[in-house]
Amino acid sequence: MTTTAQQNHLVALFKAATVIPVLTIERIQDAVPLAKALVAGGVRTLEVTMRTPVAIEAARAMMAEVPEAVVGIGTILKPADFVRVEKLGVAFGISPGLTPDLLKVAADSSLPFAPGIATASELMLALSYGLDVAKFFPAEQAGGIKGLRALGGPFPNVRFCPTGGVGEANAATWLAEPNVVAVGGSWLCPTAEIKAGNWAGITAICQRTLKALKAT
Ligand SMILES: O=C(O)C(=O)C[C@H](O)[C@H](O)COP(=O)(O)O
């Protein structure tokens, strides 16, 4: 069973992050310059998704060469993925959803882990394994802020990281919710900018986002 101390650690990590870029890395050579660009823009906590074959290698390179980055892995779909990630020594793991098998390995592990939930029943399943920090996914599509507030009624102690449809225009609104500890999304690292190697452009998006959040 996941301990309270583990969950507190994950909450602290998410709160320190505020915004978490959801990274899809196609070419291994992009990993380090991308992480450097994000860190230069003030965004240190990074979610490398397992959507691509180079994800694990990319996370490893970032950890080795960009020590300021707090690297986690996302899109953990299966217990076997979780076990691979655990061995890497990343800071946290995230999933867009959950299965009982995935929750079982996560609850037996010391790796901080946020499963994805979109319904009360999914949240109840996560809570039965002691996991009370969840990704709310897909946040905008699954009811938006109204949906999150409704979940907050029966589950007042759960903390959320909404992702899916979060961007520069609405990040502050989500973060103003008392049960939101961070927001995640791909807006900080658009595919076109990664493809073009426009690292300065990615740094600028991060700076703009953080400046706008500070002003609210
Ligand atoms: O890949 C994963 O593991 C996910 O959980 C999904 C991502 O968090 C969202 O797809 C990001 O959504 P956008 O910011 O709207 O692009």
Automatic annotation (TrEMBL):
It holds the Pfam family Aldolase. InterPro entries: Aldlse_KDPG_KHG (IPR000887), Aldolase_TIM (IPR013785). Its EC number is 4.1.2.14, 4.1.3.16. Transmembrane segments: none annotated. Pathway: Carbohydrate acid metabolism. It is an enzyme of class 4 (lyase). Keywords: Carbohydrate metabolism, Lyase. GO terms for molecular function: (R,S)-4-hydroxy-2-oxoglutarate aldolase activity; 2-dehydro-3-deoxy-phosphogluconate aldolase activity. NCBIfam families: eda, PRK05718.1. PANTHER family: 2-DEHYDRO-3-DEOXY-6-PHOSPHOGALACTONATE ALDOLASE-RELATED, 2-KETO-3-DEOXY-6-PHOSPHOGLUCONATE ALDOLASE. Belongs to the KHG/KDPG aldolase family. Homotrimer. This is Bifunctional 4-hydroxy-2-oxoglutarate aldolase/2-dehydro-3-deoxy-phosphogluconate aldolase. It comes from Bradyrhizobium barranii. The gene is eda.
